[in-house]
Amino acid sequence: MRMKSALAAAAIVALAAGCGSGGGDKGGSAAGKPGEPVKLNFLSLAWQKESVAANKQIVDEWNKANPTIQVTYVQGSWDNVNDQLVTQFAGGTAPDVIHNDSPALSGFASDGYLLDLSDKLPAELKSDIPQKSWDTVTFDDGKGKQGVYGVPFLQESQVIIANKKLLDGAGVRIPTPDNPWTWDEFSAAAKKMTKGDAFGVAWPMKSPVNKSLNLALNFGGTFFQTVDGKTTVKVGPEEKEVLQRIHDQLYKDKSADPAALGQGTADPLPAFYAGKFALLPAGVYLRQQVAEQAPKGFEWVTLPPLKGTTTDQGAVSQTLSVAQDSKHPDEALKFISYFLNPTNQAKLAKGDWLLPTSVKAAADPSMTTKENGWDVATASAKNLVVAPFLKVNGFDEWKSKVATPALQEYFANKISIDDVAKKLVDDGNKVLERYQR
Amino acid sequence: MTATATRPAPPTPPARHARRRRFSRQTREMWVLMLPALVPVLLFSVGPLLYGIALAFTDARNTRNHETSFVGLENLGDLLTAEDFWSSFRIGMIWAVSVTGLQFLAALGLALLLNQDLRFRGVARVLAVVPWAMPPVVIGLMWKLVYHPDAGILNSVLGTHVNWLADFSLALPAIIVVGVWTGMPQTTVVLLAGLQNVPRELYEAVEVDGAGRWRKFWNITLPQLKPVIVAITSLDFVWNINQFGLVYVLTQGGPGGQTRLPMLFAYEEAFRYRFAGYASMLGLAMAVVVLAALGLYLWRQMREAK
């Protein structure tokens, strides 16, 4: 009997010790005894070499200037950040400052994992970023109240990267930010540039959803509508316009390179350098790879976004947020304000080849130089409006389960435009329903 | 204890009393000795399992401001009417059955070969076990490079330009090949061990009767191996249907859900869409299906063996 109780006691002690050290992990970084510096973890998703360097440099500068608030740089990856955050949030071990993008914030905000920053933002930061960018991070908190759940800092617009020799050779009008190509002009130009074994354009559509939805706004296509608080999918003539035009280039005009269709955005670049096609619609960040990898003597230009009935494009932004469970939200916000001041934003934008949200950073000479198309890219920021899908609860599931396969099949010419519309709406509404119970 | 039970006991009451006390003391000691081993099992295995089963009957979500409530069999109802689930289930079955089957055939061939008196047999046996030493994630990354559309050796050997893992109809066969390759060593080693236990005399006896190679294989090797075959194929089946890491690295369930095995589906539901209750029900349903399939298979094999 004595042996039994002794063993039981030993087991309990061991267990308690085990739990203690497990929980201590979390407490250790946040306890902050008086006199000890506050410690913050900063999860960064920077991945391009220049951008990681810029991030680390800013963190180092901050740590030197603020001995009482020490920030640890934690490297994350876009591939699995949301899976990682779901488990970390549930386990209470999330980093204090979180780098992510606005589509992901909507879900985390309504789940209550992120801190509402609306009353805490310093005036300087708030006024430096235009309201339409703040709109990309304003979400419902899951109980009907709107809040600001991140600070937007980098934005991406869709431009066209063109082979200068083929463009000049075709004798088409060169578009400018003030007078961009219409979709009709774009189709005509692509047809003209389709000669011999060279195609006019390439549409890498391995991940077709965000690209199609952002461009669909050119003709007012929103894909979602909210009536009486219930969100449903809508695919009407406005939504079909851009889908149909891309499909026409592939199968009617035959001015789009079919080899690029199943590829990811950066995959067709070798063929682009080889002159196999002239125009590559892509996000502004792709300029970096072209600038760094293109063979010597390859000349390229950046063309401004296309015009349908408008030049509007759906915008999402990269963001920094504070975890609801962070023990030092005020210090975290101080760090964010420093991290995203105009000077640093210009640095980050240059590192990632994206557009800064800060008005002052966008006016930086390095953001408006003609070199590498920065002038065209920065000018395209004026076309960005909040992407309607940002506010849709369940968009992620709709995208991966319904929209991605449906659009892939449509662009592979396996189903018709009416089939794809029906799939997006019928199957899509079933998915959205789960989130509106 | 068996000895105690079978010994003809004198039915005198005091003796029985004494024996019961000794018996209970034995039990107590057994429990005390088992406790250190039992605690981790209860804490890290049985506990989470029961928690998972309980979750399956709630509408739990991985969120901070959601009140979890008991919903009974609603998750099961949703599951059985969801097309996604059935397509995932179908893919899981195709995957598990074909990988297990092909694995068995390939491993049997290899084991027979390695059982011959070949030169460099030792080296060959070591080489056959190499995939076993690799973690599934490393295998996944390696095969991803093999299948790479531009830089992969498969395309350069075949002279094709196929994006194997992104093609709607090729992705599943492509990962099945990887699955077979991955699981072959275990199966081969177990079958080889089984082959070496087949008594020589049996072969000698049928050789006297003038049996050929095929007859020997069919009438001696296979029946002798049967218990081993049953054991290893059932284990392989369970292992394959629960496969996660390999496919997660290779395709993440894509393209368009063509390789979304049930476990990937459950993972997506829980950690991507945050429906923890629904995902638990999915895990539970799969466990029941596997147990039922396995039970039926083993029961039939046992009955035949008798």
Automatic annotation (TrEMBL), chain A:
Keywords: Signal
Signal peptide: 1-16
Keyword Signal: yes
InterPro entries documented for this protein: Bact_solute-bd_prot1, SBP
Protein name: Sugar ABC transporter substrate-binding protein
Phylogenetic lineage: Bacteria, Bacillati, Actinomycetota, Actinomycetes, Streptosporangiales
From TrEMBL, chain B:
One biological process term in Gene Ontology: transmembrane transport
Membrane topology according to the record: Multi-pass membrane protein
Predominant subcellular localization, coarse grouping: membrane
Entry keyword set: Cell membrane, Membrane, Transmembrane, Transmembrane helix, Transport
Record Pfam families: BPD_transp_1
Source domain of life: Bacteria
ABC transmembrane type-1 domain residues: 89-297
Compartments in which it is found: Cell membrane
Keyword Transport carried by entry: yes
Matching InterPro entries: ABC_transporter_permease, MetI-like, MetI-like_sf
GO cellular component, one term: plasma membrane
Span list, region Disordered: 1-22
Signal peptide: none
Transmembrane segments: 30-57, 93-114, 126-148, 168-193, 228-251, 271-299
Homology family: Belongs to the binding-protein-dependent transport system permease family.
PANTHER family: ABC TRANSPORTER PERMEASE PROTEIN, LACTOSE TRANSPORT SYSTEM PERMEASE PROTEIN LACF
Name of the featured protein: Sugar ABC transporter permease
Taxonomic lineage from the root: Bacteria, Bacillati, Actinomycetota, Actinomycetes, Streptosporangiales
